[in-house]
Design goal:
mainly beta, seven-stranded mixed beta sheet, six-stranded mixed beta sheet, 3 helices, 13 strands, 11% helix
């Protein structure tokens, strides 16, 4: 399985062998970044804001998932779990969907624009044994660096990939990833282009933070 990042919460997750592409939260050009112009089999959308729901940018005829529920698409199991975009049960910024994606026997959790300080017991139960956690860390519209660390402690994934933080060109005012790395007591990481791994690479692995670049 290979993971690539396009900025904000947009990732491409490719099944081993390159037979299937899944895209998360494609954004539009108004945020200052270039929308991904790629083909996909599946697109998941965590909520209906313009920096997460530009599905028209994705080529092909993808199966689009944009809310809670259980889905099986081309052998990929995806569970959408209800969550909130803020700390007031959605009163400020509405709802958000957390997704658990099972691909190549690896469980990937995409938290979307999670605004809750912590996950509920029910959410944690549904997110049992997360291998890779894609978590917002830029604050303002989502959890901030310190809150992200607390959520990581709740889920105890093998790999943590921060997302939704300030990068060059982004017009949305967010914190940079440096605050998160400091909270995690991790020295500045060298960003990688893409992450390729198999389930065996995660077995008995201690938690690691991976920073990705565009």
């Amino acid at each position: 399985m290979t993971i690539s990042w396009y900025g904000q919460s947009c990732f491409k997750i490719t099944e081993q062998g390159g037979h299937l592409n899944l895209i998360t939260d494609p954004f539009d050009k108004s945020i200052g970044l270039t929308p991904p112009r790629i083909s996909a089999d599946i697109v998941i959308v965590t909520h209906s804001h313009h920096d997460h729901n530009n599905v028209s940018a994705i080529a092909g005829q993808p199966f689009i998932i944009n809310g809670p529920g259980e889905y099986e698409v081309k052998g990929i199991n995806i569970t959408g779990i209800p969550a909130f975009h803020d700390q007031k049960q959605g009163e400020e910024r509405g709802l958000n969907t957390i997704y658990l994606i099972e691909i190549d026997e690896i469980k990937i959790c995409h938290l979307g624009d999670l605004g809750q300080e912590k996950l509920t017991d029910e959410q944690i139960e549904q997110l049992n044994e997360v291998d890779i956690l894609l978590i917002p860390v830029g604050g303002v519209y989502t959890v901030d660096a310190g809150q992200a660390v607390e959520i990581i402690e709740q889920l105890e994934p093998h790999l943590v990939i921060p997302m939704h933080y300030k990068i060059p060109g982004l017009k949305i005012d967010l914190d940079g990833v440096e605050k998160f790395l400091k909270e995690m007591c991790v020295s500045q990481k060298t960003a990688i282009d893409k992450l390729t791994l198999k389930k065996k690479d995660l077995t008995d692995k201690e938690m690691e933070v991976v920073v990705m670049k565009l």
